[in-house]
Design brief:
With 111 residues, this protein is an all-alpha fold. The chain has four helices and no strands. It has two domains: 1-52; 60-111.
Length: 111
């Protein structure tokens, strides 16, 4: 009997379905033996099957304090970037006004 092969994306979607509906329902819905699906779940828990963003194992998850530290750092960087962009916008507005005024002056002197 030939063993059926499943691609990585199929396995990932199957494991996500298992998390939503449970092993038995997902197995029946997909027509895949529970033993095969159990292997995929184990592989995802061991980090051998990456489920993508938002599907972290407890080992890979940050503690609350670490997550807060990361978010604070990210907020600080974004605030710094926002401040820099505001300064650049102010400079561009001033430069635009300066060049507009100088254009008006040169237009008057030509007349």
């Amino acid at each position: 009997m030939l063993k059926k092969r499943y691609d990585k994306e199929y396995k990932v979607q199957a494991v996500k379905l298992i998390k939503e509906k449970g092993m038995t329902k997902a197995s029946k819905e997909l027509g895949v033996p529970t033993s095969t699906m159990r292997g995929w779940v184990m592989a995802s828990r061991q980090g051998q099957l990456d489920l993508g963003e938002g599907s972290y194992t407890p080992k890979g998850a940050l503690s609350l304090a670490e997550e807060i530290a990361v978010l604070r750092k990210q907020n600080k960087e974004l605030s710094r970037a926002n401040r820099r962009l505001q300064e650049e916008n102010e400079f561009l507005e001033e430069a635009s006004a300066f060049f507009a005024a100088s254009r008006r002056k040169s237009a008057k002197t030509r007349d």
